[in-house]
Amino acid sequence: MSLKEKLLDDLKQAMKDRDVIRKNTVQMMRAAILQIEKDDKVTLDDDGVLEVIAKELKMRKDVLPEYEKSGRQDLVDGLNAEIQVLLAYLPEQLTPEQLTEIVKEAIESVGATSMKDMGKVMGAVMPKVKGKTDGKQINQCVKELLG
Hints:
Layout: H1 3-17, H2 20-40, H3 46-70, H4 73-87, H5 96-110, H6 118-129, H7 135-146
């Protein structure tokens, strides 16, 4: 079963269960996927769908601190629930230790010695960890190891 089919099945199930947060989150994911497919005139495969889900997750994580600052706990709770729904569709996230190991291997394979080589290291790491961690965490890890 493809990821798009799973999203449709989960949407139907969420409607039956009257799970509003799950239903709304899945609908937003499906809308984002459809938007990209129509804009680019392509049909996304599972990798493309995972990219869209990761992008949606990143958007929500970026907004979270703003909601926390404003003191709107109801919005924070809703956003955290959406994040949990999104995480269920992504591959298991890497631990910081696993990420550090992958970055160390990339530094050795590229022969990086300074921050000037950061782009090469990032280019080597990104395909290996696609959808498994956030680019910001990768960037931070590379800076720590090269800095």
